[in-house]
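Worked example

This section walks through a single chain of length 355. The input is the sequence exactly as stored; nothing has been trimmed or padded.
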Amino acid sequence: MSTMIRFYGFSFIFTLVCLSLAAWYGWASTGTITGTLSLLWIVVVLSVLEVSLSFDNAVVNASVLKEMDEVWQHRFLTWGIAFAVFGMRVIFPLAIVAIAAGLGPMETVDLSLNNPQEYERIVSSAHVGIAGFGGAFLAMVGLKFFFDLDKEIHWIRAIEEWLSKFAALPAAEIALLLLALWGISTMLEPDEALTFLVAGILGLVTFIAVEGINAILEMKEEAAKLQGAVVRSGLGGFLYLNVLDASFSFDGVIGAFALSNNMIVIALGLSIGAMFVRSMTIHLVRKGTLAAYRFLEHGAFWAIIVLGAIMLMSAKFHIPETVTGLIGAILIGLSFWWSVRYNQRHPDETAASAD
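Given that input, the structure is written out below as tokens.
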């Protein structure tokens, strides 16, 4: 119980505040108990959907955060979550509409509140570009984890060992992604195909740029250490995690319109989910869960590859968000169970890793 309060106490308080705001907004906009309860229910469902879609995000966040010092961990968990909650769940959809419709900020907010159907239409019309960018970035995140010559721990051994051997071929994962982008683009109308390809390439370039910044910063750290300085910069990881969070949120924001086209309802529901993802990230880092369950990280990265593939395919086919969340939950659940079974069979190795 104390662990729940320690790691999830603020998220529960944040949830109560959001639900109170939702109840007030529901009563003010509908004037009926039934309308208010209906709105509250949508907020709850959106928050649960966001958590189910983003648990793998929390695991990957934890895998990066554990390598960062406490200063940058704190910065990500404060500034980063503010960007994730308010930037991607509120500002991002408004920015899409403002750019697509050529409206000013206040006009866009007015449109979202007073003409939600048109607001939803404009946001949904940008889905092909969002799917290309977000899907490409997420796919590269997952592929990079498995295309690694130095990777020694394998969960799905036959596939993962094969992929790690292919890592000897320079840029193999980039070639694989580009082939996937081209293949999907052939199924789209010419205008949409161009948008999809450009967005996908930009997602790939963004991934390479963030990785490049991280590599440069790491080289500077190593040089400083050789000179006797103790330096631990987390800027590269900070940038990487924020872009990763943004890519994850694309799917949730677009999928939320299946339940509501009201900007306030969507923002409240997704913000609750994002806050719990933050709490799960802190929990995983502080408790050393990734070290204790050796295949959990693998399950999360497989889930990210699946999410990236689904997001890319969604440019052509509609795939329910529940399917995406269910696949991710199954992969992570299986990797957790496999880890528990491994720990039971190798108790001495497990105790050594804990020390």
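What to look for: The longest helix spans residues 190-226.
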